[in-house]
Amino acid sequence: MPRTLTEQAFAKPDNPTTQDILHRDGSPVPAVFELEAPRFLGDDDIDFDRYVSREFMEREFRDLWPRVWQWACREEQIPENGDYYVYEIGRKSYIILRDNSGTVRAYVNSCLHRGTKLRSGHRDGTAQELSCPFHGWTWSLEGELVRVPCAWDATHIADRDFRLPEVRVGLWGGFVFINPDGNAPPLEEYIAPLPEHFANFDMAGRFTEIHIEKELFCNWKAAKEAFIENYHTQTTHPELLAAAYDEPTQYDILGPHVSRFLNAFGVSSPHLDRPLSERELLASMLVSDRDNLIDGDSSDSGETARTVMARTLRDALSRKYRTDLSRFADTEVIDVAQYGLFPNMILYPQLTLPVAYRFRPIGQDPDRSLFELVMLRQKPDVGSSPEPAEPFRLKEDDSFALAPGFDKTLAHVFDQDTDNVRAQQEGFYASEKGAQTLLNYQEVRVRYLEQTVDTYLAGRRP
Asked: Which domain holds residue 142?
């Protein structure tokens, strides 16, 4: 029987697949992680102009950002009535707040008198009303104009609508999303199938343990694309190959705005000359109190390192965060399922690396972007949740190890990732070829991102 186009395009090496590894141990695998959704999206080169051109960036600000759902803040950042958070993208600025009834609203951050930002400088705070710092025009939290100094001279505004312009708000998983496009599909449709895939993870029941911002010299798309494939692991992170099954990583296109890679942890990379034994794997996976955990466990009883590590980590995290994690299958504890939500969000639900990323342009410069890393831990079952961490800002040359409370081993990995992007951005300009040639399977999510950008710039929706 002739092979399909997808099979021809994705000629994979003869190694056990990610699905083989997930099922090898005999522990249950949730249906959403048994799903495979490969897609061949072509093999044309992708021009570098989209990463360096100011004109291309202006098209994005005009035709893309005003039409997409984008993560603005977490609900925990605006927990009480009157709490607000300022979200900015390019020259656009929005105030996200809870009004007097607790409803989350998003207003355009510009005074209807002479345009001054109603909130600038500080990104968050609490207010009983929104008052312009220039002339004092004031709005209620519900967006109604309530006070105009010297109102006797403004009688001509009485018959005009001076409510603060609002943009659409959507809530999911503790995240607050906004969309300036009143005709866009509802958030639930836009982010599908994330709610189904994340049903067991209770993203709303998490708190921000660490929040890091890092300034990067690269385009925002290149910044995100540095993280959405595992092809770079063998070269950029060789120390991870001992226990990261990199080359057989599974790549899925799940919806118009959602893609995923699924990577098994606790199996040696095929790139190693000699795979580690199960005991060696376990030793490489445990990062603290290693000897006690190994000696006191049944790692010689025939169990795989994956099974032992999942149990160890599940128990350790349950104790540390005072919550019952027994409902999580082994793959939900230790493996890495990375979901990308278009345009600029990445989510990892698993307990090994429970983080969310966001990538945004800095100003109008196609060469600069802001990378945000938010560590989202389970809230305790009993008692109050910790306050969300304040953002810790890093300059381009700063190491992630400077961020308080951030694991130093993990910091080194992120330093490696972000060290690549300046060289790539500079290479865009140096190139005579003028385009990148992508792998068909392992880099399909890069192509998927860029094709989705093109769809919006063409005035269509995916």
From this structure: 70-179
**295-317: pLDDT as tens digits:** 444 445 678 999 999 999 999 99
CB atoms within 10 A of CB 7: 12
> How many domains are contained in the chain?
2
Residues 304 and 232 in one domain: yes
- Do 11 and 98 reside in the same domain of the chain? no
Q: Which two tokens stand for residue 179?
A: 């969309």
Length of the chain: 462
The pair of structure tokens assigned to 86 is 């300022």
| Site of tokens 């938010």 | 374
CATH number, position 339: 3.90.380
Distance in Å from the first CA to the final CA of the chain:
33
3-state secondary structure of 195: helix
Q: 328-352: per-residue pLDDT in tens?
A: 999 999 999 999 999 999 999 999 8
Closest CA to 131 of 148, 150, 153: 148
- Condensed to tens digits (0 to 9), the pLDDT of residues 342-380 reads 999 999 999 989 999 999 999 999 999 999 999 999 999
Work out the angle at residue 314's Cα, subtended by the Cα atoms of residues 308 and 320, and round it to the nearest 5 degrees: 130
